[in-house]
Amino acid sequence: MSNILLIKSSLNGEQSKSNTLANQLAEQFTTLQNANVITRDIAAEPLSHLSQAEIGAWMTPEADRSQAQVELVNVSDTLINEVQNSDTLIVAIPMYNFGVPSTFKAWADRIARAGITFKYTETGPLGLLENKRVIVVATRGGMYQGTEKDSQTQFLKDFFAFIGLTNIQFVYAEGLNMPNGEQSFSEAQAKLEQVVNA
Question: Which CATH superfamily is domain 11-47+87-196 in?
Fold first, then answer.
């Protein structure tokens, strides 16, 4: 049995297109591969922006941490454990103002921790997470894929590669607020089973 971590970030909850597609993808993994799915909805339970106090807690030796610091570290530890214990990450992510939702950035900031998910070497940073698959379900109101305005795709590739996850695949549903939006959504749905079996 494989473990799936489903990460949701849309402000529109279960009515959102990204969550709808990601839920369908997770269901297909469950049906076709008997996968176990754990959901982390960072829009429904948003994370605060990363603070100096939190970074300071990470850098404080475990034996010297105050109770407040222990609680701060536990936030990041919990999120990292979810990633470490998964075989596949499904990332449901809408495009907000050409980028990722701020809640996703707050999540990413707590995942990238030196000595845990990456380390510095003489040749630069080295990701420490391996043998995991990342599937990004990216929804956009307009058409951005392959243009200079799609900074989201490169950010996601760079971030996951930074922590060692280079097996990343994108399922795009674009132009959802345009006249052919329903067709684009249907085409994205049709790709889901292919992704599961890839």
Answer: Flavodoxin domain (3.40.50.360)
